[in-house]
Design a protein that fits this description.
Blueprint: H1 5-19, H2 22-25, E1 38-43, H3 47-57, E2 63-69, E3 79-84, H4 91-104, E4 112-117, H5 121-124, H6 134-147, H7 151-159, H8 168-173, E5 177-183, H9 206-215, H10 222-230, E6 246-252, H11 254-267, E7 270-279, H12 283-300, E8 307-314, H13 328-340, E9 346-352, E10 364-367, H14 371-377, H15 382-387, H16 391-397, E11 401-402, E12 413-419
Parallel strand pairs: 1-2, 1-4, 2-3, 4-5, 5-6, 7-8
Antiparallel strand pairs: 8-12, 9-10, 9-12, 10-11
Helix pairs in contact: 1-11, 7-9, 12-13, 13-16
C-alpha cells in the first residue's frame, strides 16, 4: 500500500521499461562469431539501443546499418544509425531499407547476418514492391492507422506491399546464417507480425491482404489494388529453403516487463491480478471494461485490508472520427475515468513503453479519483473530448501527462490500476 499512488504508478512503468532495456536483455542472446563477416542490420524504435548493445558486447570487426524513429538515435562506432519517420514512412526510411536489403545480398555461407528487430520496424523498413511507390504505401498506411485495424491485420497488408518484409530480407541473405533478435511489441509475440517479419516465413497471403482492406472499407490507390490482385510473387512461406539457416529469438516481451512491474507492486503491498499481456480492442472500450472490473474488485475487497493492482499489456486500437490529439493510452484512460465516475481509492496509469503514445510527445497519463472533478472545474467535458479523439487535450489541461521522451525500447503498452479498499 502507498500514500503516493501516482509515484508508485510511475515506478511500475519504469520497472516495465527497464526489463526491456537492450543493454540488459540482449547480450546473453548473441550468437557465436562466424568464420566470415559479421553484418548487423535492423529496424525499429529500439534499433539504435540494440545496435549499441551489440557493439559493447561483440568483438570487432563488424559492419552494419539500422533504421530507427526520429529522436531515437544513439551514437555508435561501427553500425550506422539512420533516423526516419514513424508511423507513416518517409523517403529516409525507404532509402535506409534499400541499403539494408543491398547489404544482405551477396553474403556467403560462412557469414553471419545479425538482425535487430523491434516495434515500429514496419513503417521504418519501408521498401515498396516493384511497381509501387512510397506515396502508395503512405496512403495505405495512413488509411490503416485510422481504420482501427489491429496490428496483425495491418502487417498482413504491409508485407504484401513490401520488397523487404514478410521474409524477403532473410531470403536475400541466403546462404548466410541469419540470427534475428526481437523485442516484441505485438499481442501474442508472433515473430511474423513483429515489424512485419522481415526474416520470418510469412503464412499470410495476397488474398488475406485484399480481404482486410475490403473489411475496413479502404479503397487503395489503383496501383496497389492492381498489385494485390495480380498476386504474382508470394512472400516466402514456411519451409522455404532460403530461410533454412534462420534462427529467431525473443529477447524481450510484454509479459516479462509486466512480471517486473508485478514484483514491484507486490513488494509495495499490493496483491497483483494480471489481466493479460496481449489485450486488444478499441482503447476507450477496454478502459470502460477495466473500470467496471476495478469497481467490482474494490467492492469484493472491502474487508480484506489490502490493495489490488490490476496490470495489463497489449496494443489497443483507436478509430479516428474526430480532429483532436489522440493516443490509445489516453483514450483508454479517458474511458476508464468515465467508467469509474470519480470512485475513491482507485488510481491508474497507461503508457507506451517506447515513451511515445501514438504520435504525441507523451508516453501516457495518470488518472486519480478527482480527475473528473478537476476536469469539471476547468470547464472540460471528458466525454465530448473523447468523442473528438482529444483525450490528449484533456490530460494535458489537467497536467496529468507523463512526458519522458523516447525510452529506446518497445514492448507495447503498459497499464496499471491501483485499487485501495474503502
Amino acid at each position: 500500500m502507498t500514500d503516493n499512488p501516482r509515484a508508485l504508478l510511475g515506478r511500475l512503468f519504469q520497472a516495465a521499461v527497464a526489463a526491456a532495456d537492450p543493454a540488459v536483455c540482449l547480450p546473453a542472446h548473441l550468437p557465436a562469431r562466424p568464420k566470415g563477416r559479421t553484418v548487423v542490420l535492423g529496424a525499429g524504435k529500439a534499433a539504435a539501443s540494440m545496435a549499441r548493445a551489440v557493439e559493447q558486447n561483440w568483438p570487432e570487426p563488424m559492419e552494419g546499418l539500422v533504421v530507427t524513429r526520429y529522436g531515437h538515435g544513439l551514437p555508435t562506432r561501427h553500425i550506422e544509425v539512420i533516423q526516419a519517420a514513424h508511423p507513416v514512412p518517409d523517403a529516409a526510411g525507404e532509402a535506409a531499407a534499400a541499403r539494408i536489403l543491398a547489404m544482405a545480398e551477396g553474403l556467403a555461407a560462412d557469414d553471419l547476418l545479425l538482425v535487430l528487430i523491434s516495434g515500429g520496424g514496419s513503417s521504418l523498413l519501408s521498401l515498396p514492391s516493384p511497381g509501387l511507390s512510397l506515396a502508395h504505401k503512405q496512403a495505405v498506411n495512413q488509411a490503416l492507422l485510422h481504420s482501427g485495424a489491429p496490428i496483425d491485420q495491418m502487417n498482413v497488408v504491409r508485407k504484401h506491399l513490401s520488397a523487404i518484409k514478410g521474409g524477403w530480407l532473410a531470403a536475400a541473405a541466403a546462404p548466410a546464417q541469419v540470427v534475428s533478435l526481437l523485442i516484441s511489441d505485438v499481442p501474442g509475440d508472433d515473430p511474423a507480425i513483429i515489424a512485419s517479419g522481415p526474416t520470418v516465413a510469412d503464412p499470410s497471403t495476397f488474398a488475406q491482404a485484399r480481404d482486410i482492406l475490403a473489411h475496413y472499407d479502404i479503397t487503395p490507390p489503383a496501383a496497389v489494388a492492381a498489385h494485390l490482385a495480380a498476386a504474382e510473387i508470394e512472400t516466402p512461406k514456411p519451409g522455404d529453403p532460403r530461410l533454412a539457416r534462420c534462427r529467431t529469438t525473443l529477447i524481450a516481451t510484454p509479459a516479462r516487463s509486466i512480471e517486473a512491474a508485478a514484483a514491484l507492486a507486490v513488494a509495495s503491498g499490493y496483491t497483483v491480478e494480471l489481466l493479460g499481456d496481449d489485450l486488444e480492442g478499441e482503447a476507450r472500450e477496454l478502459g470502460a471494461q477495466h473500470g467496471q472490473l476495478a469497481l467490482s474488485r474494490q467492492a469484493m475487497g472491502l474487508d480484506a485490508g489490502g490493495g489490488t493492482a490490476l496490470l495489463s499489456g497489449g496494443e489497443t486500437t483507436v478509430t479516428v472520427r474526430g480532429t483532436g490529439r489522440g493516443g490509445r493510452n489516453v483514450e483508454y484512460l479517458a474511458g476508464l475515468a468515465l467508467a469509474l465516475g470519480g470512485a475513491p481509492g482507485i488510481n491508474a496509469f497507461a503508457g507506451d513503453t517506447d515513451g511515445i503514445d501514438g504520435t504525441e510527445d507523451n508516453a501516457g497519463a495518470f488518472i486519480a479519483p478527482d480527475t473528473l472533478a478537476r476536469a469539471a472545474a476547468a470547464g472540460l467535458d471528458p466525454g465530448t473530448l473523447l468523442a473528438n479523439n482529444d483525450a490528449y487535450g484533456l490530460f494535458s489541461a489537467l497536467d496529468d501527462l507523463l512526458i519522458c521522451g523516447p525510452t529506446l525500447t518497445n514492448v507495447n503498452d503498459f497499464r496499471a490500476i491501483l485499487i485501495d479498499p474503502l
